[in-house]
Amino acid sequence: MKSGDKVSYKGKIYIVIHIYESGYLEIKQFNKVELVHVTEIEQVKAPDSLKIDSLVYRRKN
């Protein structure tokens, strides 16, 4: 896990902004920052064919 990774915490998606050596992480969702232990989160793994940050709407011609 590294800064910028997406994680799930309490059923919501957050982005990791800092990882401490103690096992705690700062995670952010919009303007809300949480300090959580690594055991409280799950890393979100999107399939290779789905890039969450770059979804593009394409019209059919």
Describe, in plain words, how this protein is organized in 3D.
The chain is mainly β and 61 residues long. The chain is built from no helices and five strands. The protein has a five-stranded antiparallel β-sheet with strand order 4-3-2-1-5, with no helix packed on it. Residues 48-61 have low confidence and may be disordered.
Helices and strands: which structural class? mainly beta
Spatial gap, N to C terminus: 41 Å
Number of domains: 1
The main β sheet shows up as: 5 strands, antiparallel
**What pattern of helices and strands is seen along the backbone?**
EEEEE
Number of helices: 0
Strand content: 35-45%
* Radius of gyration (Å): 14 Å
Residue ranges: pLDDT <50 for 5 or more in a row? 48-61
Using the alpha-carbon principal axes, give the shape.
globular
Strand order of the largest sheet: 4-3-2-1-5
The mean pLDDT is 81
Percent range for helical residues?
A: under 10%
Number of strands: 5
What is the strand and helix layout of this fold?
Layout: E1 6-9, E2 12-19, E3 24-29, E4 32-37, E5 42-43
Antiparallel strand pairs: 1-2, 1-5, 2-3, 3-4
Short description:
With 61 residues, the chain is mostly beta strands.
Task: Provide keyphrases for this structure.
globular, about 60 residues, 5-stranded antiparallel beta sheet, mainly beta
